[in-house]
From TrEMBL:
The gene is rnc. The active site is at D40, E112. InterPro entries: dsRBD_dom, RNase_III, RNase_III_dom, RNase_III_sf. Transmembrane segments: none annotated. Residues 1-123 form the RNase III domain. Belongs to the ribonuclease III family. This is Ribonuclease 3. It catalyses: Endonucleolytic cleavage to 5'-phosphomonoester. It holds the Pfam family Ribonucleas_3_3. Its cofactor is Mg(2+). Digests double-stranded RNA. Involved in the processing of primary rRNA transcript to yield the immediate precursors to the large and small rRNAs (23S and 16S). Processes some mRNAs, and tRNAs when they are encoded in the rRNA operon. Processes pre-crRNA and tracrRNA of type II CRISPR loci if present in the organism. HAMAP family: RNase_III. It is found in: Cytoplasm. It comes from Frigoribacterium faeni. Residues 150-218 form the DRBM domain.
Amino acid sequence: MSRLGIDIRPDLLDLALTHRSYAYENGGIANNERLEFLGDSILGQAVTVMLFTTNPDLDEGDLAKRRASLVSTVALAEVARHIGLGAHLRLGRGEELTGGRDKHSILADTVEAIIGATYLDAGGDVATAFVLRLIAPLLDDPDRFGAAMDPKTSLQELSAALGRGMPTYHVSDSGPDHDKRFHATVRLGGDDVAQGIGSSKKQAEMAAALEAWTRLSVSADGR
C-alpha cells in the first residue's frame, strides 16, 4: 500500500481493509465499520473546509453540491481504483465471487476506513492532508461539478450525445416508514446502467444518475 503515501500501523491498516464478510467468516473478528464511521466525519470536514476557503464566491447551496460530488460513493470508489485499493481488500468468499473488489460501496467504505485509521495513528493534520491528496484528481475534473449539481440533466445530455436514448428511472423502497430507503435504477435502451440509494425518491434517482453519468463518461473516454 505504498501508493497511500502514509505510514499506518500494520494492525490498523489490516483492520481498515477488513470487510464485514471476511470478519464473519473468520470467527467474528473486528471489521472496518467503526473506522469507516470515523473516516466519513474526517473526510467531510476536510472537504468542507477546503471548499469553503478556496471558493469565497460560492453560496451555501453550491458548496454543498460540490462537497457531495467529492464525497459520494462513486467519487470515493474512483479514488480507490486510482490507488489500486481493490487488490488489498480482505473479503469473504461470497464477496470475492460476486466481484466485491470492484464494488463501489465496498471500495468507498474502505477509503473512509483508511482515513479513519490515519487519523487515529497520525492525527488530524496528517489525515486532512491525506484526504486532500486523495481527492486532488477529482478536483482536476471540472465536468464532475456540473454533473453533481444536476446529474439527471447531465446524464440526459451525455446519453443523447452517445446515442443511448432517454434515461428512465425505476424506484422501489424498503424499511419502516420512519426510516425508509429508496432504491433507484436508471435504464438506457432497456439496459440497467446504474443504481442509487437515498432517503427520498429524488435523492435515489440523483445518485443513480450521477453513477450512470460517471460510467458513461469513463466508457466514452475509452472509446
